[in-house]
TrEMBL record:
Residues 103-112 have a biased composition (Basic and acidic residues). One of its GO terms (biological process) is positive regulation of metabolic process. This is Zn(2)-C6 fungal-type domain-containing protein. InterPro entries: TF_fung, Zn2-C6_fun-type_DNA-bd_sf, Zn2Cys6_DnaBD. It comes from Aspergillus brasiliensis (strain CBS 101740 / IMI 381727 / IBT 21946). SUPFAM superfamilies: Zn2/Cys6 DNA-binding domain (SSF57701). Residues 15-45 form the Zn(2)-C6 fungal-type domain. Keywords: DNA-binding, Metal-binding, Nucleus, Transcription, Transcription regulation.
Length: 679
C-alpha cells in the first residue's frame, strides 16, 4: 500500500513495533499493548517515538489540529479525484488509438439520446444528438454536410444499397446520435475526392471510425436493436471493405445479421411502429442481406423466404424513367407484376450468392454431374428461368431503351439506372460464372481415358456458349454505362467484371481468331474498368495488377493449355480472381508460364456467321494477330464443328471488335429470337 495516498502524516506515534509491522491499529498501552498480550507476543516501542511532549503539544493546540485536518481532507479529495480520472481512462474502450486520447469522446450526458438508442421503436427522427464528441475537434457545418450528402448520393447510394432516404437526409442528420454521424462522416469522407479534402482541410477519418465503433459495437454486442445502430454498422462495414479489413468486415456482418434476426423475432411485439420506421428497418435489413451475400463465405443466416425478411415492407422503388416502348414479343408476366426494381435485384442477388457457393464447392474438389436434372447446376438454372418469368417487363433490356436516352435524362433517374445496371450485370455474370470453363470444359486436367465420367459434348457446348455470351454482355453493359454517364462505384459490380474478365482471358486463346479477338477486346475493357475503380477501392488494386499480367500473357503467349489442360498455377490464379474474398494473389505464375502451350479448342463453339464486309475485314486483321501455325490450321480444317440450327448462330455484332454497344444495341439471334441472351 502506498502510504502517500493518505498524505504525508505518519501513522500514530504511540503504536508498538509489532503492530506497526503488521499494519494493525495499536491500542498504545505501555509497556505492553493489549493486542500483543492476546497474541502472546513481545511488545516493544521504538525509542524515537517515546517522547510524548510534542504529541501532547499537538493535542492541546486546537488550531494546529484544525489546520492539519483541513489539509488532510484536501489531500484526500485530490487523491479521490485522481482515482476517478484514472478509472475513467481505464474504462474507455481499448480500440481507441492512444494518440487520440486527448480527443476521446466524453461519456454521453444527454439521457434522451441514451433512451433513444435503447428504444427499438424509435425512428431515426426521434434521436437527439447532444453534440459531437471532442474526438472531432470541430462540428460539421450545414454547408459541409450538404457537400457530404452529395458525395453519399453519387458514390454510395444504390451502390449497392439505399441505406437512407436521400430526400430526408438534410432534415434528419442534426437529430442523429453521435455514432451514426461519425459513421456517416467516415464513409462519405472516404469517397470524397481530393478537391474536397483540399478545400476543407484534413479530416480524421480513422478517428471517426474508432469513435463510432467504440459506441456501436458494445451496444450491438449487448443485443440492442435500433435503426441507427444498424445504419452505423452498415457504414462502418463499408469503410472496412474499402480498407480490406476482412476480419472486421466478417465480424460487423455477423453482428448485424444477429440484430436483424432479433428484429424479426420482436416484430410481433412492435406492431405499433410507424410506416417510416418500418421502411428504415427494411432498408437496414436488406443492406445487411446484400453485405452477407457479397462479402462473407457463408453459411448465411438471412434468406429472402424466411419470416424475418418476408415480413419486411418493400423499400420504396426508384422513380421509373419514361417508357419508350414495350416489345410486342414480351407479354407482361402472369405472376408478380411488381415493378420495384430494387426488390428484383434482391431476389436475383440471392441466386448470385448461391452461385458463389456452388463455385466455391467445385473449387474445393466437390464435382457433380452437372448435366443431370437433379444437379445444383440445373437447380440454379431453373431459378434463373423463374426469375426471368417474374421480372416486370419494363425492366428488360429491350424495353428500357437505354441507347435512346440522353445523358441528362439518365442522370435525373440515377437511382433507377444504378439498380438496373446491378440487375443486368448480376444476371449475366451469374450465367457466365455458372457456366465458367473452369467448372466444366476445363475442369478436369486428367486425360480423357482416365476421367471417371464422360461429359456430354452437347452439355459442354451449352456451357461454353453461355459463358462466352453472358461474359460479353457484362463488358458491353459496363461500356454502355460509361457512354451514358452512369457512375459506377459499386464493389459488387467490380467483382462481377473481374469474373467476366477471367472468361474473356480463357477465350482470348481460342483457336478461332475472331473469338480470340473479341475476347481480347473485352478483356481490355474489363481491365480498364477495374484499374479505374481501384483508384477508389484499394481492395481491387491487386486484382487489377493480376488482370494486367493476364493481358501480357494473352499478347505474348501462343497458348496456355498443356497436356493436361490449364496448369495448376494458372487455375489457382484464375480462382483467386473469381473468389471475392481472396486477398493475396501469387504473380509468380506469370513469369513461369510456358509460352508455347496449346490454344483453347473451339470444338464446343458454334460456327460464327459472317455476313458483312466490316466483319470480314476485322477477321482478316485479327487473324494476322492471333493466327495459328500451318499445322494448327490443318487441324482446324478437320474439326467437326457442332452445327446449331440457323436461329442459334451468333450474330456478328456479338463478336465484332469494332462495334460498340453505344453505337448498336441490336444483339439478335439470326432467325428472330430477340435479344441474344439479354435480360
Amino acid at each position: 500500500m502506498n502510504h502517500s495516498f493518505l498524505g504525508s502524516e505518519p501513522r500514530s506515534k504511540n503504536a508498538c513495533d509489532p503492530c506497526r509491522r503488521k499494519k494493525t491499529k495499536c491500542p498504545g498501552e505501555q509497556p505492553s499493548c493489549s493486542f500483543c498480550q492476546r497474541l502472546n507476543q513481545k511488545c516493544t516501542y521504538s525509542q524515537k517515538f517515546k517522547p510524548k511532549a510534542k504529541r501532547i503539544h499537538k493535542v492541546h493546540n486546537p488550531h494546529a489540529v484544525h489546520h492539519d485536518s483541513q489539509g488532510q481532507i484536501s489531500r484526500l479529495e485530490a487523491q479521490v479525484n485522481q482515482i476517478n480520472s484514472t478509472l475513467q481512462a481505464l474504462t474507455r474502450p481499448s480500440r481507441i488509438d492512444p494518440s487520440m486520447a486527448a480527443r476521446d469522446p466524453e461519456p454521453e450526458t444527454d439521457q434522451r439520446s441514451v433512451h433513444a438508442a435503447l428504444n427499438p421503436n424509435a425512428s431515426i427522427n426521434s434521436y437527439s444528438r447532444p453534440g459531437l464528441s471532442p474526438l472531432f475537434g470541430r462540428h460539421p457545418s450545414p454547408e459541409l454536410m450538404s457537400q457530404l450528402i452529395e458525395v453519399y448520393k453519387s458514390e454510395i447510394h444504390f451502390q449497392p444499397f439505399p441505406l437512407f432516404n436521400v430526400a430526408l437526409l438534410r432534415s434528419q442528420w442534426p437529430q442523429w446520435p453521435h455514432y451514426l454521424l461519425q459513421s456517416f462522416l467516415a464513409a462519405t469522407l472516404t469517397f470524397a475526392d481530393a478537391s474536397f479534402h483540399n478545400s476543407t482541410g484534413p479530416w480524421p477519418i480513422d478517428s471517426f471510425i474508432q469513435g463510432a465503433r467504440a459506441a456501436v459495437i458494445p451496444l450491438a454486442a449487448d443485443g440492442t436493436v435500433s435503426v441507427p445502430i444498424l445504419m452505423s454498422l452498415c457504414l462502418l462495414t463499408l469503410c472496412d471493405i474499402f480498407a480490406k479489413n476482412e476480419r472486421r468486415v466478417s465480424m460487423n456482418i455477423c453482428i448485424a445479421t444477429n440484430l436483424v434476426n432479433e428484429l424479426g423475432r420482436n416484430a410481433k411485439s412492435t406492431d405499433q411502429r410507424s410506416p417510416d420506421l418500418r421502411e428504415e428497418e427494411a432498408r437496414c435489413c436488406w443492406n445487411v442481406f446484400l453485405f452477407e451475400r457479397a462479402f462473407t463465405r457463408g453459411p448465411w443466416t438471412l434468406h429472402p423466404n424466411t419470416s424475418t425478411m418476408v415480413n419486411l415492407p418493400d423499400v420504396a422503388s426508384p422513380k421509373l424513367p419514361r417508357v419508350i416502348h414495350r416489345s410486342q414479343l414480351a407479354p407482361p408476366p402472369i405472376t408478380n407484376p411488381d415493378s420495384n426494381i430494387f426488390v428484383s435485384c434482391l431476389h436475383l442477388f440471392s441466386i448470385w450468392g448461391k452461385i458463389l457457393e456452388y463455385t466455391s464447392q467445385a473449387q474445393s474438389g466437390q464435382p457433380e454431374e452437372a448435366w443431370l436434372a437433379s444437379s445444383t447446376y440445373s437447380t440454379l438454372g431453373m431459378e434463373f428461368y423463374q426469375f426471368e418469368t417474374s421480372l416486370a417487363q419494363i425492366h428488360r433490356f429491350e424495353n428500357v431503351g437505354l441507347n435512346s436516352r440522353s445523358s441528362e435524362e439518365v442522370s435525373q433517374h440515377m437511382e433507377y439506372w444504378s439498380s438496373w445496371l446491378l440487375l443486368q450485370t448480376t444476371f449475366h455474370t451469374g450465367h457466365a460464372l455458372l457456366n465458367h470453363p473452369l467448372l466444366h470444359a476445363l475442369a478436369d486436367s486428367r486425360p480423357v481415358n482416365e476421367r471417371p465420367t464422360f461429359k456430354p459434348p452437347s452439355f459442354l457446348q451449352q456451357t461454353v456458349d453461355q459463358a462466352l455470351l453472358h461474359a460479353g454482355w457484362t463488358s458491353r453493359l459496363i461500356r454502355a454505362a460509361g457512354d451514358m454517364g452512369i457512375r459506377i462505384n459499386n464493389p459488387i459490380i467490380a467483382h462481377q467484371v473481374i469474373v467476366s474478365a477471367t472468361v474473356h482471358w480463357i477465350f482470348s486463346f481460342a483457336t478461332d481468331p475472331t473469338i480470340a479477338a473479341r475476347a481480347m477486346s473485352d478483356l481490355d475493357q474489363c481491365y480498364q474498368f477495374i484499374s479505374n475503380i481501384a483508384t477508389r477501392w484499394p481492395r481491387f488494386a491487386q486484382k487489377a495488377t493480376a488482370l494486367s499480367h493476364l493481358q501480357t500473357i494473352a499478347r505474348q503467349t501462343r497458348g496456355v493449355l498443356g497436356p493436361r489442360g490449364l496448369s495448376a498455377p494458372i487455375s489457382s490464379l484464375l480462382w483467386n480472381l473469381i473468389d471475392p474474398h481472396a486477398t493475396d494473389i501469387d504473380f509468380t505464375v506469370c513469369s513461369t508460364l510456358n509460352p508455347s502451350g496449346d490454344r483453347v479448342p473451339t470444338k464446343h463453339l458454334a460456327q460464327l456467321h459472317e455476313r458483312s464486309h466490316s466483319t470480314s475485314s476485322t477477321t482478316q486483321r485479327t487473324s494476322e494477330e492471333v493466327s495459328p501455325d500451318a499445322e494448327e490450321q490443318q487441324s482446324l480444317a478437320s474439326v467437326n464443328f457442332m452445327q446449331y440450327p440457323g436461329g442459334f448462330l451468333m450474330d456478328e455484332e456479338l463478336i465484332s471488335a469494332e462495334n460498340h454497344l453505344s453505337e448498336s444495341f441490336d444483339f439478335q439471334f439470326l432467325g428472330g429470337f430477340g435479344n441474344l441472351g439479354g435480360l
